[in-house]
Design a protein that fits this description.
single chain, about 290 residues, alpha/beta, Rossmann fold, 2 domains, four-stranded parallel β-sheet, 10 strands, Cys_Synth/Cystath_Beta-Synth, pyridoxal phosphate, Cysteine synthase, cysteine biosynthesis, Cys_synth
């Protein structure tokens, strides 16, 4: 018999059939919305909390705090509830109402502030007081180690080692860092492609960080190429995915899909895998699907 934690990972890999027309290129989406809290962040949340417990850095009396744009917070709220841990999540006020309500449903306290940078500063200040333990997904190796342990091996296995390109949105960069480390160890010729918003665009879950806030776990040498994606392109691809492929996901997935299709149109043959980060139901109060 499985418990809920056992259902994290081993998500499906499905082929995209209708968004490109090169018969020698296969494009696959890894459906991370199938995780129990609905996103790829379930993996990192579990590894960060479980590893901190195993090292004795936190215990049942610890108060946890984390800044999040949404998916990590929901995942942490679920994992914290399973371990009986107190958790405060700090999130931009612009986040969809569904996200706040989901975190609160799991029992987390939610604090809404102006933007992600302010949220990160607030969480670090409260942790510095000694009252809270900050998980700090932006600098925590347990974030990307989750993908070395799980996501990378799953992709390698499910493509029978034929993957040529891995594409991921870049937020905390944990997913792309961990998958890059694992996949490059299997085949150094695999191309690792990140996507980020264009200068004027806002895409939830993907960031173009100011230098001072660039995640400390990010190593630029592990990414072969970065593709800029506009908000318009990401929105259009998100709608394409649900209407033409039946994949109901958020805008960061649309951004990653746009980058994957761009690569598919440039190469003669290959096997491309992109991360479908989450589920679309946490964006229904926005105009994403309008």
């Amino acid at each position: 018999m499985k418990n809920l934690i056992d259902t994290i990972g081993n998500t499906p890999l499905v082929e995209i059939k209708h968004l490109h027309n090169n018969p020698k290129v296969k494009v696959f989406a890894k459906l991370e919305g199938n995780n129990p809290a609905g996103s790829v962040k379930d993996r990192a949340a579990l590894n960060m909390i479980r590893s901190a417990l195993e090292r004795g850095e936190i215990n049942q009396q610890s108060k946890l705090i984390e800044a999040t744009s949404g998916n990590t917070g929901i995942a942490l709220a679920m994992i914290a509830s399973l371990y009986g841990l107190e958790l405060e999540l700090v999130m931009p006020a612009s986040s969809t109402r569904e996200r706040t309500l989901t975190m609160e449903a799991y029992g987390a306290k939610v604090t809404l502030l102006d933007n992600m940078e302010v949220c990160r500063d607030y969480a670090e200040e409260k942790a510095a007081s000694g009252e809270y333990y900050i998980l700090n997904q932006f600098a925590n190796p347990d974030n990307y180690n989750a993908h070395i342990k799980t996501t990378g091996p799953e992709i390698w296995k499910d493509t029978s080692g034929k993957i040529t390109h891995f594409v991921s949105a870049m937020g905390t960069t944990g997913t792309i860092m961990g998958c890059s480390i694992y996949l490059k160890e299997q085949n150094p010729n695999i191309q690792i492609v990140g996507c980020q918003p264009t200068e004027e665009s806002s895409i939830p879950g993907i960031r173009r960080w100011p230098e001072a806030y660039l995640p400390k776990i990010f190593d630029a040498s592990r990414v072969d190429r970065i593709i800029d994606v506009s908000q318009t392109e990401a929105t259009a691809r998100t709608r394409d995915l649900v209407r033409k492929e039946g994949i109901f996901a958020g805008m960061s997935t649309g951004g990653a899909c746009q980058a994957a299709i761009q690569v598919a149109n440039e190469i003669e043959e290959g096997v491309i895998v992109f991360i479908a980060c989450d589920r679309g139901d946490r964006y229904l109060s926005s105009d994403l699907f309008g």
